[in-house]
Specification:
Layout lengths: L1 H21 L7 H6 L6 H12 L2 H13 L6 H4 L1 H18 L6 H7 L2 H18 L1 H16 L1 H5 L3 H54 L4 H10 L23 H11 L2 H8 L4 H22 L1 H9 L9 H9 L2 H41 L6 H22 L10 H25 L5 H20 L7 H22 L23 H18 L8
Helix pairs in contact: 1-11, 1-18, 3-11, 3-14, 3-15, 4-9, 4-16, 6-13, 6-15, 7-8, 8-18, 8-20, 9-11, 9-17, 9-18, 11-12, 11-15, 11-16, 11-17, 11-18, 11-19, 13-20, 14-18, 15-23, 16-17, 18-19, 20-21, 20-22, 21-22
Main location: membrane
Pfam families: SSF
InterPro entries: Na/Glc_symporter_sf, Na/solute_symporter
């Protein structure tokens, strides 16, 4: 009972503060609803980036991977620091100078409106298939395991997943539609503080439980037994081989932090480039310490449980067994909030893409001038439609036979890397014509689908993504020699403009972050802890 009470109070407190801080924002305008008034400082930007990135999917999927393999899965978070720093240095100045609201806006300026529309549709397909349903499913799995809801309610596991998916979906929809991006960013900040405390509390109780009441003994056991699970240097047999961090993983992380609409939209809401870059650096620092929060339960589970059948339940099982009831309720509220936050950001990014890149251009083509009220109403209706689709589809992820996290990353590559490729080529080569972008998109998507789902290849999917990236770049540049673009005007960046003045200390901070990243890999390797 204590767990339910603390869960309810924590959830309601965060919702109330978010509402109170949001009521002064005009949500009846597109800028107020979709961009939080473009007035966020670096602390809110950093919190929004981390909490939008952090969802129950990671708690569920990464701990499952740690239990089955080792700490190699932490590469997704640790090495994302490199991508975040590159995005901060090269991507964000272009976005801010161009006054862009969505990342496909760059494609319209660089290629043409048709390319922008095509990429917007691919974005929306990606969110509908591989973002919103998995977020709901991951949250439902976490809540089911932490509260042991099937036995409590006297229903099956399948029925419990259905009920919780719809609960999360309805609450997330209401939160997004009524509060807009400002409410999301405020709740992100509050949840960020809570998760920081959880990063200290969960290891403490987990290790003490492992040591049967003795914290030091629990830590000793963790570091002295099953040490192969402490290894972050993945082999070819692991879910994340070490070699992939230099190929496809780097590209995927660059796409995620620099192009993914629901992530980049958090930086677009910053008041200027300086605040956006500071926020990105602070978020990168938190990514370095995120394994303490995300992956430790999986390591503890290796010592506590043998032969777990439903490995997706590892994280909720550890939390339920080790935390006191009150803290379990708070932890569940934080995981619930993390799932809602990512879901909200996905809905919000989707409605922004639809309204600004598809619906508004359609009306303008019909020589119609919509009011702000019409655009906002359309955005909310579209969010509701997507939410309904996601709530219907999410429970069926239960029947996926591969690891949950690996499944997510493999499917994401079908949508993300083709978009990333044409944007990168657009950055570096001004002669590539719009037709090359369209051919590049089609080639990459078809080739990746064949390689992953039709052919039986032994090469890792991240290496396949890197190979297809290089092939697509070659094809696009080859086309540019035959049909060079007539629009070769580059997007200039005036660094003296007040909104585009970069953060002066960013280079020093970047070097420190990269050194810390290398040290973490050395610590979690056979040279130190995994010996």
């Amino acid at each position: 009972m204590e767990a339910f009470v603390s869960f309810g109070l924590c959830t309601l407190l965060i919702a109330f503060i978010s509402w109170y801080k949001t009521k002064s924002t005009n949500l009846r305008t597109v800028k107020g609803l979709l961009l939080a008034g473009k007035n966020n400082g670096y602390l809110i930007v950093a919190s929004s980036l981390i909490l939008t990135n952090l969802s129950a999917n990671q708690f569920i999927g990464e701990n499952e991977s740690v239990y089955l393999n080792n700490l190699s899965v932490m590469a997704w978070g640790i090495t994302s620091v490199v991508a975040m720093l590159l995005v901060s240095e090269y991507f964000l100045p272009i976005y801010f100078k161009g006054g862009m609201i969505t990342t496909p806006d760059f494609l319209a300026k660089r290629y043409d409106e048709d390319t922008k529309r095509l990429v917007s549709i691919i974005f929306l397909l990606s969110y509908t298939v591989n973002l919103l349903p998995p977020v709901l499913y991951g949250g439902a799995v976490a809540l089911t395991g932490m509260f042991h809801l099937p036995s409590l309610w006297g229903i099956s596991y399948w029925q419990s997943i259905w009920l919780l998916v719809w609960l999360l979906g309805l609450i997330g929809s209401a939160y997004t539609i009524l509060g807009g991006l400002r409410a999301i960013t405020i709740s992100d900040t509050l949840l960020g503080i809570g998760l920081l405390l959880l990063a200290i509390v969960l290891p403490f109780y987990g290790l003490r439980y492992l040591g049967k009441g003795d914290l030091a003994l629990g830590l000793t056991l963790l570091l002295s037994k099953h040490t192969s699970h402490l290894n972050a240097i993945g082999t070819a047999q692991d879910a994340v081989p070490f070699s992939t961090i230099f190929t496809g993983m780097l590209l995927v992380n660059l796409y995620y932090w620099g192009i993914e609409q629901y992530i980049v939209q958090q930086t677009f809401a910053a008041r200027n480039l300086k605040e956006a870059q500071k926020g990105m650096a602070l978020a990168a620092l938190s990514k370095l310490f995120m394994p303490l929060l995300i992956n430790l339960p999986g390591l503890i589970a290796v010592h506590l449980y043998a032969g777990v059948e439903n490995t997706a339940s590892i994280f909720p099982q550890v939390a339920a067994d080790t935390l006191p009831n009150t803290l379990l309720g708070i932890t569940t509220a934080l995981v619930f909030g993390a799932a809602i936050t990512t879901y909200n950001a996905g809905l919000h990014g989707s409605s922004t893409l639809f309204v600004m890149n598809l619906y508004l251009p359609y009306l303008e083509k019909k020589h119609k001038t919509p009011t702000e009220t019409q655009l906002v109403r359309t955005a909310k209706r579209f969010e509701l439609l997507l939410s309904m689709i996601a709530m219907i589809a999410a429970p069926f992820i239960l029947f996926v036979d591969s690891g949950f996290y690996t499944y997510l990353q493999r499917v994401a590559g079908l949508f993300s890397m083709p978009i990333f490729t044409i944007i990168v080529v657009g950055f570096i080569n001004q002669k590539v014509p719009p037709i090359a972008a369209k051919i590049g998109l089609l080639f990459f998507m078809v080739a990746y689908f064949i390689c992953e789902y039709i052919l039986v290849l032994t090469i890792h999917y991240l290496h396949i993504l890197a190979i297809l990236f290089l092939l697509t770049v070659f094809i696009m540049i080859a086309i540019s020699f035959c049909y060079p673009s007539k629009n070769t005007k580059a997007i200039s960046i005036n660094l003296s403009h007040s909104l585009v003045v970069p953060w002066k200390n960013r280079h020093i901070v970047n070097v420190v972050l990269l050194i810390l990243m290398v040290l973490i890999y050395i610590i979690f390797s056979p040279f130190v802890l995994a010996s």
